[in-house]
Design a protein that fits this description.
By secondary structure, the chain is an alpha+beta fold. About 30% of the residues lie in helices and about 35% in strands. The chain contains 8 helices and 13 strands. Strand 8 and strand 9 form a beta hairpin. The relative contact order is 0.11.
């Protein structure tokens, strides 16, 4: 009779304990590899959830200014510079660092299909992220958008009601380890405030292509200085029957997808982690 099964069960301090330790090591290593691979260090999701909760009291935790460009400030910074690098999916175009401050500048350039096309710096879009040093590292203090984006967004859209509504939507968003989806109503939106076809062309230049029988534009961007296979950002705009006013916009980049329907007056956001 084979007595090995009996020996295995009756000796918890022997092979069973050794197997348990081996299993725990496997689980620990797998967890460590996953965390390292996603630059989470076991904390990014927690920081993101704490940041989400700050939107429950928007006026105390954030400030939003519209001047030459949009500037969004975090009164209680949560996200580390390493978090931003993972979320952005690409390194910054330029970094400036001192003992107490860090600035990341992301510049994207327009992609065109013409042979021999050279990107025009006038069409570049720039976003600056400013960090302050804390005990546990550099944390994001404020984000400053390119004036082109400010003009495209039209600050007149963003009155107190719209901002409070958006903040509450984020506050109420549940926790998901796969993706976060958000739908927001923009009932106060006035279509007359949207940029016209000509204004979009003046802001962004000629599109990569036209779609739906010339009733829509497609723009594509990539990180400046990166090779052609780098991450592509895609912006699509559809116009009304007159061909002058946008009725819908969509954008895709890395883990982010946004859609704005100006007729239904709804905005959709999906972030996949």
């Amino acid at each position: 009779m084979n007595t090995r099964p009996h020996t295995f069960v009756s000796n918890p301090t022997g092979r069973t304990k050794q197997n348990r330790r081996r299993a725990l090591r496997v689980v620990y290593r797998a967890t460590l590899i996953c965390c390292t691979a996603f630059a989470l260090s076991g904390c990014l999701l927690n920081r993101m959830m704490e940041l989400k909760d700050q939107f429950c009291d928007f006026e105390s935790n954030f400030s939003l200014q519209f001047e030459d460009s949009v500037e969004f400030s975090f009164n209680q910074p949560m996200l580390l510079d390493t978090d931003i690098l993972w979320l952005s999916g690409a390194p910054p175009t330029k970094t400036t660092k001192s003992a107490d401050e860090l600035t990341m500048t992301f510049v994207i350039e327009k992609v065109m299909s013409q042979p021999g096309y050279l990107p025009d710096p006038a069409n570049d879009i720039q976003v600056d992220l400013h960090f302050d040093r804390f005990d546990d590292g550099f944390k994001l203090r404020r984000v400053r958008m390119d004036p082109k984006l400010t003009s495209l967004m039209n600050p007149d859209f963003f009155d107190k009601n719209v901002i409070n509504s958006a903040a509450q939507e984020i506050c109420d968003t549940g926790r998901s380890f796969a993706s976060t989806k958000m739908e927001m109503d923009i009932p106060e939106l006035e279509l007359r405030l949207l940029p016209s076809r000509q204004e979009i062309l003046e802001l962004l230049g000629a599109p990569l292509e036209q779609i739906d029988q010339d009733t829509g534009f497609v723009y594509q961007y990539r990180h400046k200085g990166e090779k052609h296979q780098s991450e592509i950002a895609r912006l699509m705009v559809w116009f009304d029957e007159s061909g002058e006013k946008p009725v819908r916009m969509e954008s895709n980049y890395s883990r982010y997808h946004t859609k704005a329907d100006f007729i239904e007056k709804k905005v959709f956001l999906r972030v996949t982690l």
